[in-house]
Specification:
Layout lengths: L7 H10 L4 H12 L14 H10 L6 E7 L5 E6 L5 E9 L2 E5 L3 E3 L8 H5 L1 E4 L2 H15 L5 E4 L9 H11 L12 E5 L3 H9 L5 E5 L5 H7 L8 H15 L3 E7 L7 H11 L4 E7 L14 H13 L4 E4 L23
Parallel strand pairs: 4-7, 7-8, 8-9, 9-10, 10-11, 11-12
Antiparallel strand pairs: 1-2, 2-3, 3-4, 5-6
The structure holds iron/sulfur cluster (SF4).
């Protein structure tokens, strides 16, 4: 395993097993996560013998930035080439008081959502925790700023790669390293019920977002095939448990698709469902894929009309401004450029 895949305690064990002192683990952690050093040779306060052993037993990810796409709105998409030549994308999103990184958890995705370019790629492989952590290191190095918020909303379904995703979140949230606040880390799932159940059984540490996109099973399954396995009522039963145990809200994401999920009937059913548990709703613009025209997106007027249905009953709903649409970095667009010949 590469060194950025170790939790702090595991790194300590590794160092001791290599004949080093426990405090060297702290120093190495500091070099990697506070001083952005990714070469054991440069860790000058670590004994030379230990550095050699570290080189023999672990290493750093070999990830190249193979594309940089800068949006007019300030967000930046990085195309990253992994050591086995697979590629993934992550997106840096600057906002007034924070710098958010949208990370990928898999190369491709097996769930095939119709509005998602990554889904069209199919599943290639899971990323390791080390590869996920490296996205934060690379992005913060590129931006020359600390990443304050991380959302697992890039390529892949995070709960389909549960262990590595949770491991990576534990590493980036460690206070002595990257120190991304636990409440500033959001794991976003399409509704992977087995994953949510595991998450509830584990000690819940991070925020949870669910991509809903339609409140009716048959319609939802038509754009999100994963819904055939995990239906809406079972999903809400599990989410109810989540909110009870965690005392937290669920954030629901809802891409507005003209004529498909934007009617009074949809709004009413959404309110009925979402009022069952502490939650809030983010409405998102539909971003068309390369082979589509943009007829599926709602006009601003229709979006506000849909939003007003929630405002009328005081349900917390907002329209989330798209970021990076011009560089195909917005919701559903990752993989749309570099992988266009494969989707
Ligand atoms: S929306 Fe998420 S779960 Fe669906 S295909 Fe895309 S990456 Fe996979």
């Amino acid at each position: 395993m590469n060194v950025t895949g170790y939790r702090p305690d595991e790194l300590k064990d590794l160092i001791v097993s290599l004949g080093g002192k426990k405090y060297s683990a702290k120093q190495i952690w500091n070099w990697i996560y506070r001083k952005s050093v990714n070469d054991f040779s440069l860790m000058s306060d670590i004994p030379a013998g230990l550095r050699e052993k570290l080189k023999e037993n672990t290493g750093f990810e070999k990830i190249n930035i193979s594309g940089i796409y800068e949006s007019l709105d300030g967000s930046v998409k990085l195309l990253l080439e992994l050591s086995d030549n697979n590629s993934v994308e992550c997106v840096i999103i600057p906002e007034t008081n924070r710098l958010t990184l949208c990370v990928s958890s898999q190369a491709g995705c097996r769930y095939g959502c119709k509005f998602c370019a990554t889904g069209k790629l199919g599943f290639i492989r899971n990323l390791t925790a080390s590869e996920i952590v490296s996205q934060i290191l690379i992005a913060s190095d590129y931006a020359q700023k600390r990443i304050t918020n991380v959302v697992y909303m890039g390529m892949g379904e995070p709960f389909d790669n549960y262990d590595e995703v949770i491991r990576s979140a534990d590493i980036i949230s460690d206070d002595s390293g990257l120190a991304v606040g636990k409440r500033k880390i959001t794991i976003s799932t399409f509704g992977h019920i087995d994953g949510v159940k595991r998450y509830i059984d584990d000690d819940i540490r991070y925020k949870l977002a669910v991509s809903l996109h339609n409140p009716f099973d048959r319609e939802r399954s038509s754009i999100m095939p994963g819904n055939k396995k995990y239906g809406i009522s079972e999903l809400f039963e599990v989410l109810k448990l989540y909110t009870k145990k965690s005392n937290r809200k669920v954030v629901f994401e809802y891409v507005l698709i003209k004529g498909f999920n934007d009617t009074e009937r949809h709004a009413k059913e959404l309110i009925r469902l979402l009022e069952k548990l502490p939650s809030k709703l983010n409405l998102i613009k539909y971003h068309h894929l390369p082979d589509e025209n943009d007829n599926n997106a709602l006009s601003e007027e229709d979006t506000l009309a849909f939003l007003s249905r929630f405002r009328r009953v005081n349900f917390p709903a907002v329209f989330r401004k798209s970021r990076g649409e011009d560089i195909r970095a917005a919701c559903g667009q990752l993989a749309a450029d570099h992988f266009s010949e494969r989707i």
